[in-house]
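Weekly structure sync, notes
Attendees: PL (lead), two postdocs, one rotation student
Agenda item 3: pending single-chain targets
PL asked that the sequence for the first pending target be pasted directly into the notes so everyone works from the same version. It is reproduced below exactly as submitted, 807 residues in total.
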Amino acid sequence: MSKNVVIVESPAKAKTIEGFLGEGYTVRSSFGHVRDLAKKDLGVDIEKNFTPHYEISADKVKVINELKKLTKDAGMVWLATDEDREGEAISWHLYEALNLEPQKTKRIVFHEITKSAIKNAIDHPRNIDKNLVDAQQARRILDRLVGFELSPVLWKKVRPSLSAGRVQSVAVRLIVERERDIMNFNSTSAFRVTANFISGNALVKAELANRFKTLDEARKFLNQCLNADFTIDSVETKPTKKSPAPPFTTSTLQQEASRKLGFSVAQTMVVAQRLYESGKITYMRTDSVNLSETAINQAKEAITKNYGAKYLHIRQYKTKSKNAQEAHEAIRPSYIENSTISADSADKRLYELIWKRTIASQMSDAELEKTNVVISSSNALEKFVAQGEVLKFDGFLKVYLEGTDEEGEENQEGMLPPMKVGEKLKADEISATERFTHHPARYTEASLVKKLEELGIGRPSTYAPTISTIQKRTYVVKEEREGVERKYNVVTLKSGKITEAVKTEITGAEKGKLFPTDIGMVVTDFLLAQFPKIMDYNFTAKVEEEFDEIAEGKILWTKMLKDFYKPFHENVVDTSEHSERASGERLLGVDPQSGQNLYVRIGRFGPMAQIGESSDENKPKYASLRKEQRIDTITLEEALDLFKLPRVVGEFESKEMVVAIGRFGPYVRHNGLFVSLKKEDDPMTIIADRAIELILAKRKAEIEKHIKSFPENPEVQLLNGRWGPYLAIGKNNYKLSKGTDPSSLSLQDCLDIAENPDNASKGNRFRKKGASEKVTAIAAAKKAAPKKTAAKKSAPKKATKKKSSKK
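Predicted structure, written out during the meeting:
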């Protein structure tokens, strides 16, 4: 038995650390949290000062039993979970669940997985910080109280199976309010005037300092330019500097990985976790921009070696957030001398982004020279301005330039030719182009993180889970939306002639933006009306500050919960008993055929249109809204069209083809087969020939997908998928080894493959219910299989036994 047992959170980290510690140390993983609030009832005894009832998670019972055996006779147990509150809580739960002894337990922390950091942690252990644990307990219990009490109110007043959360509901509110701003936005147009002037042999691009509101004003100005002389009024040149951005925090890494690499917030954190656990970067959950002395010295050496001493400018950044822990570091490479790593594409790209940002933060300012040229016209008061920029010394720009969320930016300023005051310029072309004001930009995942951070809502560890949660619960969708065609006017003066044209452009196209769903908007409106305090940005930020104060030992966590819970619970009871149901109902008008009112609202299965009153003796008619339609924007005509479905588009093989809209979008139904319509197919106008085409394509795909099935057990199938052949048993999928001929496999071969957990697809392997579902599926398949088959006789008994014992 090892004298020293080190417990970390992840197996990847365990493997890396064991290599550093060597003999005498056994490193094992807890696989994250091992205990949580009991699922039965509330899991918190409110009457007994919010005493939590913890239970070992079902999927961690085996882990705890193994760790108990390992730690029972150990000389020392080292709890080496992450250095944040979550990690501290995991250490405390391990201490409690394993019944560890105080004199044989030490807590160690490190912000990078390097040999020196691990050795230093072992040399400087500490006790579990109960204040940090209490802060995490307070967050977990408060979030359970909010979710447990608010969700049933939503089931009763809006729709079953809904949920609410302290941070998630506020995040949805941000997206809903932005959408309402966009809906209420009235675009206006103005004419932007640009000119190409000739100075010597060089082209100078300039823009009029002001814009014209109308086409007539633009025409008038260009007429004034017809025979005008253009003269340089002033040339102003001044030096300027650009400084690098500080090293990455969790928030800025998520934002920049989104802009530069196209990563989602969740993807960024998954990749960063891998880099951290393999010892490549420092801890990825931090709000500090601080760099250690070691890191600065490493950066100094790398910059001097790779770029020269003139590119070096040592800086020590200070975090603006008042609750940031400066003892922690920014996210940086563990070994700054390594500008790249050998890894898969995502890991490598994120690592290089972190390396560039870290190195750039310790490099010299970029030196530029900006030139501003004012050009006047002899026939008009308005003046043109030409701007140029010359890079005198690239400094940190040699390595890295921070991205931006701003949309529709103009091209960067270029270099201007030498010009002097009084010089006459020739106008080659002057154009007045109609431009439109743009509504506020919808949030991306990255810009939402930025906003949450600005408001003080959430902390580094909560941004990614919050954004994932609001999408999983379909309050928000991330998607692309096509733009619409718009006309605009252009007036051009060239070669002494003025011409006018009406051009078209596509506007309003969106990519990777967050849109609130109808249910997201209805729930937000309801919570704002009934629980204004919970939905208040300042209140949510204040709660975060109170968690910080608990972590610092300034306030008691139980008092904080007590102060919050009493008024909140009274609000819940009052709302549940006295508030009206919320459905987002909107009266669109009257159905011309029946003369009854037509409404749109949230129904049991989502947004729908309704003709007639729910209280009438005659049952109202219902129709689901299409995926792209919204309660707030759908028109009476569009809603009436919904009642034209389902519609028969013709017959095929003596069976009707019926087009309708279901929960997953428009489809055509034929002889029990459901075929989804393509994006370009309109269910209102699709004709019989196209429906037949889709049906035949679906049949062909089904035939090509199927490789082999077994009459004795139709649940077991060998199929062709997107990434090649695979085994399916019920709803569970399993990988086939490379080179396996699926058509040669017997039923018993398939069952043997399914018993090996390494063959489960990722969706089954990591889903909480996946393991039990898989076992049930295999058991059912075995039961259905014949007791004696040729395959079973030929299967090697030894291998089967080994697999069974593993299971």
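Discussion points:
- Residues 763-774, 787-807 have pLDDT under 50 and may be disordered.
- The longest helix spans residues 130-157.
Action: rotation student to compare against the earlier draft before next sync.
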